[in-house]
Every structure is written in C-alpha cells, then in structure tokens.
Amino acid sequence: MAILSAAECAAYKKQGYIVPTAPLLSEQDFTDLQCYHESIATEWKEIYNGRPEEMDKPHFLFPELFRWALHDTVLDMVEQLIGPNIVLFTTHFITKPAGTGRRIPWHEDSAYWAGMLDRMDSVCTVWLALDPSLKENGCLQVIPGSHLLADHNYHLVKDDAVFAEEIDAGSFDKDSAVAFELDPNHCSIHDGRIIHGSNPNTSMIRRCGLTLRYFSADCHFTQHENDPDFRIYLARGEDQAGNTYAQPYEINNSWREKLIGQAVGHEQ
C-alpha cells in the first residue's frame, strides 16, 4: 500500500530524508508502544545499568518490540524507499531526560557500520517520536543532501555526549541543518549516510524516540569480529545476498548475558 507520495519518494533520494505528515501507527498500537517503553525503561536502568539515551538494540532483550519493528504499516512505507526485500538491521530508543539529556554529535550512521554491509545506499532509518520532539528538547537535525557527499573525518569530543566522536567542523554547512520537530506518533525517515545530530535537552520536556533501521536484502551482511552476538532479521520478502537471519520474537541470550556482565563490571 502506498503511504508515501511519488514526490516524497523523490525528495528522499535527493535530500536524504522526508518527514511524512500523517501519524504512523493506529492510536492503539502507538499507546501500546508508549506503555511498553515505560515498562522496559525501568528494567534497562535497574538490570543493565544503562543511561536512557543508550538503549541500543532493545529488540535483542525485549522481543515484544518486534510487534512494531515488523509492523506492516512501517514496512509498507520502507518498501517504497528500498524495495520489497527488507532486513531489520537494528533498533534504538534514544531518550533524553528533561534537563539532563545528552547531545548527539554530528555523525553519519554508516561510519559505524564499516565492514558490516557491502553497500550503504539502501539503509533506511525510521525515527518515531514517542514524546513531542522539539528544538527546545533536542530534536533530530540533518544536513540535507549530505548522504551524497564523501566520507568525513572525525575527532574525539570532550563533552559528555552520547557518542565519543564527531565529524570535523568545517567539513559541512551547519547553517543548512533542518530540525525535525515531531508530534508523538509522527516520524521522520533518513538515509543511513546522512549527517545528523541533536542538541542536549535543557528543557523540562523529555524527548524519547524509537529508531528502526532497515536495509535491502540484496546487501550482504558480514558479522563483525568484535560483535559476534549481533543478529539481523528478514522482515519482508526474500534474501538476495546469502545472509543468515535470526528468528524474531526471541531473546538474544548471548547479548543479554554480555550486557549483564558489563553492568556488573561497572558496579565493581
């Protein structure tokens, strides 16, 4: 089913992003997602000793999230951008607490996936707002067209940011940044190569979003030697690249044990 217009699909290819105008999920599906996030956020903090900005790959730990990561409405939209054979790559809840939420430095997601995928041009990120996402609480910002630029150099950041590295200043035009201000249950979609980041949340309003990342099943995935517990899932269609897929709706126990071990190590 066509959710995006032809103009939106064309804009995505040219600009590297789009912001659909309609809510993404039904009212019930979205309310259920909000409630589920609140329940697992407590466990994430208590068991895994994690900051709310860093709830990365939560579907490995909380398999009920596959209900939304494999939702037909989401996949129908993604199919219009990357084709009918879709792989669920990863998920991420990025929650910036009111007043203390950390900034996300300017970066390209593809820089963190070097060696994992044989091409980056079909990676698509859906960013779904669970809270109001505003300039004042650190909404996502992108540099239009930067998905078509060459790779960039990075430097270490000195402040308390979510990531430790940032693209060198002066290698892109910060003044061209577009801020994605979103109501709850609205989303943005961006290319995995686009330059993006966000400011810290110094407001009194929490900012929470669910990131859902997909790539075309004609891309070959290589298991990273430093991350042998990582899993990918065939979300729709057929494999085209000889990839190996895990079963959805199952806990990734090796990932869970690793995180528990890291949490214990931090406490000691």
Summarize the structure.
By secondary structure, the protein is an alpha+beta fold.
Protein architecture, described:
Helix content is 23%, strand content 22%. With 268 residues, the chain is of the alpha+beta class. It has one domain: q2cbj1_9rhob like domain (Jelly Rolls, Sandwich). Strands 1, 2, 3, 5, 10, 12 and 13 form a seven-stranded antiparallel sheet that branches. Strands 4-11-6-9 form a four-stranded antiparallel sheet, with no helix packed on it. The protein has a two-stranded antiparallel ribbon with strand order 7-8. A hairpin with an 8-residue loop joins strand 7 and strand 8. The chain is globular, with a radius of gyration of 18 Å. The protein starts with 5 loop residues before the first helix and ends with a helix. The mean pLDDT is 92.
Reported CATH architecture? Sandwich
Q: Which fold name is given in CATH as the topology?
A: Jelly Rolls
Give the count of helical stretches: 5
The biggest beta sheet, please?
7 strands, antiparallel
CATH class, anyone? Answer: Mainly Beta
Strand content: 15-25%
- What's the count of strands? 13
**The number of domains:** 1
Helix content: 10-25%
Give the CATH H-level superfamily: q2cbj1_9rhob like domain
Structural class: alpha+beta
Distance between the termini: 52 Å
**Radius of gyration (Å):** 18 Å
**Element-by-element helix/strand order:** HEHEHHEEEEEEEEEEEH
